[in-house]
Amino acid sequence: EEVGIPQPSNGSKLVVTTRMLDVCRYLGCREIRMPTLPKQDAWSLFLEKVGKDVLNYPDLLPIVESVVEQCAGLPLAIVTVASSMKGITNVHEWRNARNELSRRVRGVTGLDEKVLEQLQFSYDHLEYERVQHCFLCCA
Description:
Blueprint: H1 21-27, H2 39-50, H3 61-70, H4 75-85, H5 91-102, H6 113-124, H7 129-138
Helix pairs in contact: 2-4, 3-5, 4-6, 5-6
């Protein structure tokens, strides 16, 4: 009930997530607003996915914090970015990740810049060209 899945149902449920209200309206969905994660929860989720061993590198901490901030409290962005940085302790790689995330994307209408930046980061860090192609087909 709380997240919009009424009881009883026939066993099938469809949950649509979007940052664009027009999508919900077009599909006739029941709108349930989910706020972004508070800073502390975002940090905890990031650490859970990247691994707490990152805390053992004091030189990395300010950069890691900046990367978490770039994720703007969006759980999918946090999980994706943290997973792609798991096991990386090189300060230069972390700086590169931070810089990639902070790039500005212009000329795209109807899409939140932060979301697009994180999608671009995710795409760029897919290991194989075939997987990138699959990502584009799904998009």
